Protein: Acetyl-coenzyme A synthetase
Organism: Sphingomonas trueperi
Amino acid sequence: MSENLYPVPESWAKTARVDAAAYERLHAQSLSDPDGFWLEQARRLDWIVPPATAGDWSFDEADFRIRWFADGKLNVAANCLDRHLATRGDQTAILWEPDDPREDPRRITYRELHEQVCRFANVLKAEGVRKGDRVTVYMPMIPEAAVALLACARIGAIHSVVFGGFSPEALAGRIVDCDSRIVITADEGRRGGKRVPLKANVDAAQKHAPVLEKVIVVQATGGGVVMQPGRDLWYHEAAAKVSADCPAEPMGAEDPLFILYTSGSTGKPKGVLHSSGGYLLWAAYTHEVVFDYRPGQVYWCAADIGWVTGHSYIVYGPLANGGITLMFEGVPTWPDAGRMWQVVDRHQVEILYTAPTALRALMKEGDGYVTATSRTSLKLLGSVGEPINPEAWRWYHDVVGEGRCPIVDTWWQTETGGHMITPLPGATALKPGSASMPFFGIEPQLVDGDGALLEGATEGNLVIARSWPGQMRTVWGDHERFFQTYFTTYRGKYFTGDGCRRDGDGYYWITGRVDDVINVSGHRMGTAEVESALVLHDKVAEAAVVGMPHDIKGQGIYAYVTLNAGEEASEALRKELRDWVRGEIGPIATPDALQFAPGLPKTRSGKIMRRILRKIAEGDVSSLGDTSTLADPAVVDDLVANRVG
Ligand code: WT7
């Protein structure tokens, strides 16, 4: 394990917003006087009624509650737009780079964005959307996606973004779960030169989502779509009929801002609900401090708006800070593997935030694509989504950043709203592969399986001992599930689901999920979800899914499938089942390996022994451990003999 230390460059230590001494002081203060600290920080937002209270929370069952700034009132869209108009109305807010590099980028100023958001908000109002209503957003990476989110925020509607790579079935499930009668989509999306039939997917989703009444369609590609009279309307036609004036709805700090579905270890995806005040403060504050963001800098978060990273670090954080946020429609490998570095040069990007999986995919193509570009604009690099292996870290640092740019390896989750454990570029000496130190207000702890606190250099389960403003507030429609999922494993603490090591210098090293969640290319996939999709197929009797190591994706999906009696295993069926899962959930859920298994290893009480399945998937068959408790130990021999990959 690499313990190389990369000290803070002197120039960063001198000029950064937070240096090492300030980090120590502020972190200590944030824990010793949280109310004072957070009421002071809350002033970075523009409040209609400034809050007089900060955190009001308990993780105990008897008085379980999480509230921040509860007596404050604000509007999130006004914070991201209106308050910047006087000082930087003509500055670019969104800088959009199209999928096809031969096309022109788009630049949208704060004034233009404000006008578009007001119009979109008025279209939503005209369609009967009111404060508290849920609006599903199923969009490609075009500026109108950000406009749609901010339009919801402006009128107090709760947006629920569904990643454009999800299938009609997955979309329908999310529409139904949050009872959303309206969907905002586009005719088609574009990615890597290919078209994604978003509107047609919405049409297909309707069959399983009768609650859906209205579809607002943004014309993105001009590709042909079938419009259903009475249900579908073109955004550009509706927008021409409404005024560009829309007052921002005053919202309580605790009023919901959005729902975002994420996979867990059991059951269907959970609707993670975030607040208006605490969430926005967390997104804005972390964006400013972790990226040391300065007005005028071109900042690029290369995520999709369908994930929390896109919410917090393409839209809300950078716009709350009056920044220039680059939005990229395309993919890192098209037309060639130099695309990201060409975009950096084209727009003089100073801060780049991407995922280890993208870096590994590009690293594999060789340094030539990188060194063919200049990249002299780059000052800071960021990583998110999964542990970054030291080899990819060094490539990012040495080749992409030419040794000049610190890397902030940011650990956080959909549930946390924003960065939790991360270096600060002017304060933290870096260790490749370590997310390093807690952000202000964050108190991480490591506990053993019984919940006993582990001190010093150690390894255990990562919990967070106190609330923070950006914390999720509930699971949509199932507050009990929220409590059960996160606060019962270790009483009185938020359980992250991650394993973690703390070294002798107090650095945190995330080791990966300790639950039945697979991290595929930095995206969370629940094993139960893939299993449910497989058993829906009429030839499948039973399925068990585990993670396996994957060079590019970090983890891949390994599925064991038992067929119904009389069904024949074949290559054709293997392909059919993989395609089936892809169709049920989306391409990211496609099993990388699928093994036909006449039987699964079960205890005598019928519980599948996943530990054994994981070992076989990893190819680590020499240490299967104790199999004596299995109902039928012979099934293991068959699984080992017929391992795929
Ligand atoms: C899980 C959360 C955070 C937004 C994108 C993913 C893993 C995330 C890191 C990191 C090691 C990381 C964790 C976490 N993870 N960032 N820097 N180092 N692991 O959000 O889908 O909610 O997934 O991603 O396992 O629990 P998500």
Q: What stands out?
A: The mean pLDDT is 97. The chain has 21 helices and 31 strands. Residues 262, 307-309, 383-387, 409-414, 435, 496-498, 510, 512-513, 519, 522-524 surround WT7 (CB under 6 Å).
